[in-house]
Amino acid sequence: MTVHANESALVLFSGGQDSATCLAWALTHYKRVETMGFDYGQRHSVELSCRETLREQMASLKPEWKDRLGADHMLDLRSLGTLSDTALTREAEISMTESGLPNTFVPGRNLLFLTYAAALAYRRSIKHIVTGVCETDYSGYPDCRDDTIKALQVALNLGMEQRFVLHTPLMWINKAQTWSLTETLGGNALVELINTESHSCYKGDRDHHHAWGFGCGECPACDLRAEGWQQYRETTV
Q1: pTM for the full model?
Q2: Do the annotations mark residue 50 as ligand-binding?
Q3: Which domain holds residue 99?
Q4: Exposed site from 94, 99, 108, 182, fewest CB < 10 Å?
Q5: What is the pLDDT of residues 21-64, one digit of tens each?
Q6: Does 120 count as an annotated binding residue?
Q7: Does 204 fall in a domain?
Q8: Is 5 annotated to bind ligand?
């Protein structure tokens, strides 16, 4: 895979499966990689506690990854949680709303994340920003769409007079293909690490362990992860 000589990347890194895969992707492609996380009062804040372990253990998988992994940045965005009346920021049952969107949708979340990431990238002289949003396996979130990301890239570049590139390595692949990409990037060791140490469950359940990792096994995030894992394993047996 091509390594961009002397170029840096900033990865939006939540501690979940998708962002961990994106971190591995960036460590494979860029000479220097920094990470950024957000505390927005999310119900599944346990994902934030997974970040440090994932970073450290991913860096240990390959000497070049250890050399390339740079600073981690954590931003307090709990004001977003106070504004949002959603199942990710409140103790509420996960359901569909009258608008047709699931009530796990946090309005403005990815737009804010990428805007703050661009502001940090501006200060750190980083051109490439990597996020794990995806149209194939997503819960109907409009801020995960390719059109949204492309439009935001234009707005950020115009508004900051920069040439940022927003990368979405998972945009057109499903969860099974995400696991396959993980294996391509870091072999079975990376698959096992992300399986056991990343967190995707919307309810923040780290008490129940399944073949596909920890989670409640009932929320949409667990359903996607479980189905993707099963499909992935069927192709690797």
Answers
A1: 0.90
A2: no
A3: 4-174
A4: 99
A5: 999 999 999 999 999 998 876 655 677 889 999 999 999 999 99
A6: no
A7: no
A8: no
The verdict on whether residue 17 carries a ligand-binding annotation is yes
13 known ligand binder = yes
Give burial (CB, 10 Å; 0-12/13-18/19+) of 210.
middle
Residue 216 marked ligand-binding: yes
**Which CATH number is 108's domain given?**
3.40.50.620
Count of domains in the chain? 1
Distance of alpha carbon 51 from alpha carbon 53, whole angstroms: 6
pLDDT digits (tens, 9 = 90+) for 138-164: 667 888 899 999 999 999 999 999 999
Q: Is residue 195 part of a domain?
A: no
User: Is 90 inside a domain boundary?
Assistant: yes
The CA-based angle 158-72-8, given to 5 degrees, is 50
**Alpha-carbon distance 139 to 148, whole Å?**
15
Q: Is 153 annotated as a binding residue?
A: no
Q: Check the annotation: does 21 bind a ligand.
A: yes
